[in-house]
Design a protein that fits this description.
Blueprint: H1 3-17, E1 34-37, E2 39-40, E3 59-60, H2 63-76, E4 86-90, H3 99-112, E5 118-123, H4 125-129, H5 133-141, E6 147-152, H6 156-161, H7 168-181, E7 185-191, H8 199-211, E8 217-222, H9 231-236, H10 245-258, E9 263-266, E10 277-280, H11 284-298, H12 301-311
Parallel strand pairs: 1-4, 4-5, 5-6, 6-7, 7-8, 8-9
Antiparallel strand pairs: 2-3, 9-10
């Protein structure tokens, strides 16, 4: 790679992603996809536990600018040894864009990267439900697939407390709508989101919701307390009681034991006390045995103290 190309590619990457700030988040299942900026921030932006888009005003990038972004990416990846086979629409929930705009974007992406297999992105349940069945089918036909839904919990009480803006019914309806449209999807759930008061309900109801759905992958993360999240003040006030790392790990073990669907269980996110990944139901028993060993290890005071110190990098009290 010549120096001039490398310098130009680095400049273009800054132009493409600089607005997203230092913590640019993408679905774990699509971390290797080429990322096309189409929105900045989240159109909802009021979840109590989240500050991933804190200080970032929601913006829909104009179509002409999106097309320019695709051309920049064509230049950056023009010398890749392998063709681009998957693209990700960047932003907190790009499915909030109109169907017409999403179709135009898909057309541009396919003209730049003819071998792309699918286009994915984050989506909220209400983004999915705002589109008709015909619109979802047209998006599927245009190559949209493997969307990522942050359902977080199957408990309405947990979702209301965390001000998610959608409930169990909306999450279930959105997953059914994607199934009907022929679009695959992954989901995120968050250990510890119910705190101590709703821990059991959170896990039981989340498992029940997932067992009625068909996600190709389940990404499990653990609640951490970010400085800009509204939840921080409730923790300081003693209203919300967080789980300790060992308790969150036990939640994850309970969730895994209750799942009955064929899916990939991905608990390798860096917020988790113990990274684990496998396919269900084939690897369930092995995964449970590994989690049991991790629970036994984390139960040791010295290990637990070290894990709590690591978590404090995420917390503010």
């Amino acid at each position: 790679m010549d120096r001039g190309f490398a310098e130009r590619a680095a400049q273009l990457r800054q132009e493409l992603y600089g607005e997203y700030g230092p913590f640019y988040y993408v679905p774990m299942a699509e971390s290797r996809a080429v990322q096309v900026p189409v929105t900045v921030g989240c159109s909802y932006g009021r979840c109590l536990f989240c500050d991933l888009n804190q200080g970032m005003r929601y913006r829909e990038i104009p179509l002409a600018e999106v097309f320019d972004n695709v051309e920049k990416l064509r230049f950056i990846h023009g010398r890749d040894r392998r063709p681009v086979r998957r693209c990700l629409l960047a932003g907190g929930n790009p499915l909030s864009l109109t169907t017409e705009k999403l179709l135009r974007i898909a057309e541009k992406i396919r003209s730049a990267f003819p071998e792309v297999g699918y286009i994915s992105g984050f989506a909220r349940a209400d983004d999915v439900l705002a589109k008709t069945e015909a619109e979802l089918r047209s998006l599927s036909a245009a190559g949209y697939d493997r969307l990522c839904l942050g359902i977080e919990s199957g408990s309405d009480r947990v979702l209301r407390y965390q001000e998610k803006g959608v409930g169990r019914l909306e999450n279930a309806s959105a997953m059914r709508a994607l199934d009907c449209a022929g679009m695959r999807y992954s989901v995120y759930v968050m250990l510890g989101l119910g705190g101590r008061a709703l821990s059991e309900e959170h896990i039981e109801e989340t498992a029940r919701l997932l067992n009625a759905a068909r996600p190709f992958e389940l990404t499990v993360v653990t609640l951490v307390l970010f400085k800009g999240a509204g939840l921080a003040s409730r923790v300081r006030a003693g209203e919300f009681k967080r789980l300790r790392p060992l308790e969150s790990l036990m939640e994850g073990r309970r969730l895994l034991s209750l799942l009955e669907i064929p899916t990939v269980y991905d608990g390798t996110h860096k917020t988790n006390a113990f990274p684990i990944k496998g396919r269900l139901p084939e690897h369930r028993d092995r995964l449970l045995r590994r989690m049991d060993r991790a629970i036994e290890l984390l139960g040791r005071e010295d290990v637990q103290d070290g894990e709590i110190r690591r978590w404090r990098n995420w917390f503010t009290e």
